[in-house]
Amino acid sequence: MIIGIDDTDSNEGMCTTYLGALLLEELQVYGAIETLPLLIRLNPTIPYKTRGNAAVALRLKTDCPEKVIAHVVSRIEEFARMECEKTNPGVVFIPEKAYGKLKPILRNFLEKAVKDVIEIEEAKSLISESKVPSKGFKNGRGLIGALAACGAMLNLEDWDHTFEYLAYRKKEKWGTPREIEKESFFEADRKTYPDTWDTVDLKNRLIVCVPHSADPVLFGIRGKSPAIVTKAASLIMAEPVERFAIYRTNQGTDMHLLSAESLAEIRDMHSYRLEGTVSAVPRTIHGGHVIFPVQDKEGNGIDCAAFEPTKNFRLLIRKLRPGDRIVVSGSVNSGTLNIEKIEIKKLAPLYREENPICPTCGKHMKSSGKTQGFRCKKCGTQAASKVLCEVKRNLTAGLYEVPPCARRHLAKPLVREQRYDIEINPAR
């Protein structure tokens, strides 16, 4: 069977991946785990999510499904943060006999859960029609992610993936400051980048892979294979680990992005890759956020933002000027696109007025007085007015990204792109 679980954590603590790691060990009493567990990030713009909007799935070969179901439900009841208003767990059990029928249905459901907005009733109706075992707690919103994670497990060949090594703290340490040797994270990055990423932010001298909340995660290493994330984890010095798990995941894949042919299509709570032209000089607003408008060929527009957490990325955005042709990727909320990546396709030429140059000696002429034109003092050459000269811009066309400290889970880092010109964090 495939087991999908979602929404057991809260803003204050717990983590659905911890429950997945625990079950990964415990369920082997009832059968054999058939493949790596899955960590599936869903639509990042959903307002009622807890933290990272992640669901997990396990695939188990077992002869005693009833015992498995009872064990999983009991563990959810024990660990889920039911006291939190936003925590509404859900678990789904897909029996092997239903794999063929549900594979295409849940493939579409997965796609929608990552890119679109799904109501709870849609998930409950699908479960009812499919007659698969499930349990929703409180309002049952977690059934959405549980089904999506099952869809990912049934369709492994259809989606891009990366891996994450998640190390978990001993329970008595939960909620206390994490004890880590910071330099070991930079050493792990030096020895495994570019096959791992987002371990540290070199430009801002920050450790990115260690959470700050009270959840059980000690650190998480992201990379291209189980072997490389294991190698990186082995180089890290920190407090004793209770357990770890390696998840196959859709993190770092841009799976959430929709292509927008026109800005008129743009909707809140969705993520896009869109092309347009900068229509005004970027402005810095209260809080250090940098905002600028983009227009398409039809004149439709949208504001794009590099928010303060993007740090040095804002320096790049401030250099944009009206007429620059760009492609931006990011999520839309309140009518503003939060930039994750930007491709500067073509820079608009900028001009400034200068005194004309003498064609004889090559020096700039001097003004002869108001409305009297210009004259070269050395050669006597004259000109009627100033001339326009193109300004060299301190910006290069290419593909840029926010630094790792501001990267969203689903955003594909440039190190994974088929091509990139300049990586903001940092030159290596």
UniProtKB/TrEMBL annotation:
Keyword Ribonucleoprotein assigned: no
Any single Gene Ontology cellular-component annotation: cytoplasm
EC number: 6.3.4.22
Domain TiaS FLD positions: 140-256
Keywords for this protein: ATP-binding, Cytoplasm, Ligase, Nucleotide-binding, tRNA processing
GO biological process: tRNA wobble cytosine modification
GO MF annotation terms: ATP binding; ligase activity, forming carbon-nitrogen bonds
Annotated compartments: Cytoplasm
Name of protein: tRNA(Ile2) 2-agmatinylcytidine synthetase TiaS
Gene: tiaS
